[in-house]
Specification:
By secondary structure, the chain is mainly β. The protein has a single domain, classed as Ribosomal Protein L24e, Chain: T. Helix content is 10%, strand content 38%. One of its GO terms (biological process) is translation. InterPro entries: Bacterial_rp_bL28 (IPR050096), Ribosomal_bL28 (IPR026569), Ribosomal_bL28/bL31-like_sf (IPR034704), Ribosomal_bL28_bact-type (IPR001383), Ribosomal_bL28_sf (IPR037147).
């Protein structure tokens, strides 16, 4: 399953773990996705979508 917001398209960010020894290893920061039942726009159809919390807070999704 893709770790991507279905509203804004926000996906994971990539970088490095950098410990005291400076030996860099790969890591990723996943977006905070929540599974929400939201209306699809046409009628009262509710559909389960994965939305990031910044879109929920901004009101881009009507529950």
């Amino acid at each position: 399953m893709s770790r991507k917001c279905e509203v804004c398209g926000k996906g994971p960010g990539f970088g490095h773990n950098v410990p005291w020894s400076k030996k860099k290893t790969n890591r990723r920061w996943n977006p905070n996705l929540q599974s929400v039942r939201a209306s699809t726009g046409s009628g009262d159809n509710l559909k389960r979508v994965k939305v990031c919390t910044s879109c929920l807070k901004a009101g881009k999704v009507s529950r």
